[in-house]
Amino acid sequence: MTTGPRVILGMAAYNRPDTLARTLESLLAQTYRDFAVHIVDDGPSPAVQAIIDAYTALDPRITYEANDGRLGMIDNWRKAFTRARQLYPGSEYFAWVSDHDIWHPRWLEVLVPALDERPEVVMAYPQMQRIYTQEDRRFITRRFETVGMVKPTERLRRAITYLTAGNAVYGLFRISAMLQAGVFRRVLAPDRQLLMELTLLGEFRHVPEMLWYREVAGNFSLKRQRQMLFSARPPLYSYLPPIIQHFGLLLWDFGARGNGRSAFGRLKGSWYAVLFLGYSLRREMVHDEAWWRKVLARTALGRVLQRRNDEAAA
């Protein structure tokens, strides 16, 4: 075991022999060289193994392990982080990488200084391009960052309103903050839950350079999320709205366990969890009126109102 490089990259792979070699080429072409890649394969196959054997023979910075059985996306992402940390306990920064996207050679060269320059920044991420097909590529020009926002409540409100979690979760993270936030949890939309906790612990920095090219497969329904995220029967709480699942973890982590103690105490942590719930519900009411009507319809008040509407219509 070595203390290792400053940056570790955790790849939660799942049966993409069609793109894996291309992805590894883009990572190994990084101009910033002080990094290692640990791959955890949740769908091993002979085709994937052949690619891995070729690249591990070329570059010792790549390590690989295959799961005996499918873990599901959440546990595989967690394992990619924890195993990389076990191999390289002295590393400062971490990023998840996919087995199908492409990274510009200057990706780490730009993002590492973005964290070095400001110790209050816990995550930095670049401009990106979404690839739906080879013919359909879309530049994402929207920016989100919280640099200079000292108040956690201000950062939280902005993140709930403007953050695109699927983009930011592939940023470069400060490992110490990741450990406080609990890494990747067994809830729906785990990327968003992690980022909500991190935004209370520090600032997010957006680097306006096109450094990441993301393959997009489309939107996932809650049903499909449960199939992908968990390896077996989804836990019962996963049928609650994701906002409620995230609120419960925020309250547990920061209110009960005091995980935010370096920045704030348990009382404030509990208050931030309540604010998260309020801000999130208000956002849903504004952006998804149909969702709010469904929630209301499940309450006693909603049933009374529906009955009155039915009676009036008759």
Describe this structure in words.
- This protein is of the alpha/beta class and 314 residues long.
- It folds into 2 domains: 225 residues, Spore Coat Polysaccharide Biosynthesis Protein SpsA, Chain A (Alpha-Beta Complex); 75 residues, no CATH class.
Short account of what is shown:
With 314 residues, the protein is of the alpha/beta class.
Largest sheet: 9 strands, mixed
Choose one word for the global shape.
globular
User: What low-confidence regions span 5 or more consecutive residues with pLDDT below 50?
Assistant: none
At CATH level 2, the architecture of the largest domain is Alpha-Beta Complex
CATH superfamily of the largest domain: Spore Coat Polysaccharide Biosynthesis Protein SpsA, Chain A
CATH class (first level) name of the largest domain:
Alpha Beta
Strand content: 15-25%
Number of strands: 9
Counted up, domains total 2
Distance between the termini: 74 Å
Q: What integer value in Å does the Rg equal?
A: 21 Å
Structural class: alpha/beta
Order of secondary-structure elements:
EHEHEHEEHEEHHEHHEHHHHH
**Relative helix content:** 40-55%
Helices, by number, come to 13
Which helices and strands occur, and which strands form pairs?
Blueprint: E1 7-13, H1 20-28, E2 35-41, H2 46-58, E3 62-66, H3 73-87, E4 93-97, E5 102-103, H4 107-116, E6 121-131, E7 137-140, H5 152-162, H6 165-168, E8 172-174, H7 175-181, H8 190-201, E9 203-215, H9 222-229, H10 242-256, H11 266-287, H12 289-297, H13 300-313
Parallel strand pairs: 1-2, 1-4, 2-3, 6-9
Antiparallel strand pairs: 4-8, 5-9, 6-7, 6-8
Helix pairs in contact: 5-8, 5-11, 7-8, 10-11, 11-12, 12-13
